[in-house]
Specification:
single chain; alpha+beta; Nucleotidyltransferase, domain 5; five-stranded antiparallel β-sheet; 14 strands
Length: 367
Amino acid sequence: MHKSLYGLKQALRAWYTRLNVFLLSIGLCASKVDTSLFIFSVGADICYLLVYVDDILLTGSNSLLLQRLIQQLSSEFKLCDLGFVHYFLSIEVQSTSMGLMLCQHKHILDILTRASMLSCKPVDTPIFTSKATILPDPLFSDATRFCQIMGALQYLTFTHPDICFAVNRVCQFMHASTDSHWATVKRILRYLRGTTSHGLHINRSSSFALNGFTDADWAGSVEDRKSTGGYLVFFGQTPISWKSGKQRTVARSSTEAEYKALADGTTEVIWLEYLLTDLQISSASAPIIWCDNLSATYLSMNPVFHARTKHVEVDYHFVRDRVAMKEIQIHFISSQDQLVDVFTKPLPTFSFTTSRFKLRVDPPPLA
């Protein structure tokens, strides 16, 4: 088994095949939408098993059922039961009075140490709010170091959605990073220095509803005038999925940019619905996606507008089909209440702090 895990080129496939066959043999069912997830249910009790290589996270509604699964795994593999989860894949898990808090305090300190910025002066926002200008700029002298820091920051966005836009913005220049890009990285690190204890709070909620928010910053990139789109999905009161990224093609109007972001958000919500179905969690109503562009909202429901959007890729029009089948609902939301601005554009301090609070990224509660 040691050779299968670490000594062969096909190590991951060999290990997963062995584990998958065993889990299925003892009654677990593999998720159809996430190959690393397995579900085991007996009557009203249910357990979830999540696998990442040889790290396993196990949770469920019945402690006796969990112990039974652990014993069965121990009979086949050499296990080390670490008890209640406190640390998993560099993510620290803390129990709070309201639920759980996920943070990466140690990971942040490691990044700051690697960048020699452990004693830097903190700032309130992770990115400059001024518009970038295209000026001659020398290439950064240590491209390897730049890529290593950015890779670590990308992993940090799992618990720090507040830096998602800033990290994505800099990652667009990893192939040819300059001194000004490194200055932006240092700005992110200075922000993290002041928020090392912050984390994502997962609060208990009786609501199983999915609510998505989508937004786009039309032609926001000064390099190629492509738009930046983003989405944020809540399960109950907790954000569970988010994205910030440059759109693949240039949008000829703000409506087109917003509609592309709406389509991306719809795709994610539909996938999450399938995942919740696998987890045997159902919602009483169709998910709602909130968009702050009236034209994009009308376009998702009214085919009359099709003549104005013939140049938009056909795959984005599947949103209308989902609305017609009542699988999702598209609602308008004012720009003042939009939560995805933090994923599409740099914000001033007050707006950014407000958005971070709504993202549930806060320091741990006082004991």
